[in-house]
Amino acid sequence: MSSTSPRVEARARRPETAFGPGALLTAVAWAAAIAIAARFPVALPGTDIPQTAQTLLVLLAGGLGGLTVGTLAVGIYVCAGALGVPVFADGASGLSVLLGPSGGYLIGFWFAAGLTGYAADRGLLHRWAPAVLTMLLAHVAILAVGSILLAARVGFVAAWFNGVAPFIVGGVVKSLIAAFCVVIVARLSGKRNETT
Fold it and tell me: Rounded to an integer, what distance in angstroms lies between the CA atom of residue 117 and that of residue 134?
């Protein structure tokens, strides 16, 4: 009889937690999903930075794929865009996007995926409260990094009103959706592992 819990055993069996062909393919799929989401921006009043479903997918890449897959997916996505593949919002690409008003948010994606992936690898996303808190903190990371770099261009007050305030409601909603998804998947995976 094993002395470890089913949750610990399930986490240890996850192929995504170590780098390999499976993790790479999964990361590429998440990067493609993030790129597709960028093709459907929603203009918000008071800001030139579009809102998309990208942040939701970034959180899910880490929350469902783990630290390796999540950070790798964002790395692939950002590198592809920097190298000229039109994967950023409105089909943009190039280093000019990373150096522009929205560049800091793209860098913040990496921190967000790392945070949710770290929590997922440690089995912290099986319960509602930790999952919601993790997703909210991941969105805070995106907005914090993005607004800090934006503030260097336009000042902190303008960065708040142009790069943070318009995205708070959407960030909360997407955090709740992400938390719901990871908790449901984690619980379904736990039940499946208990029956095998």
Answer: 10
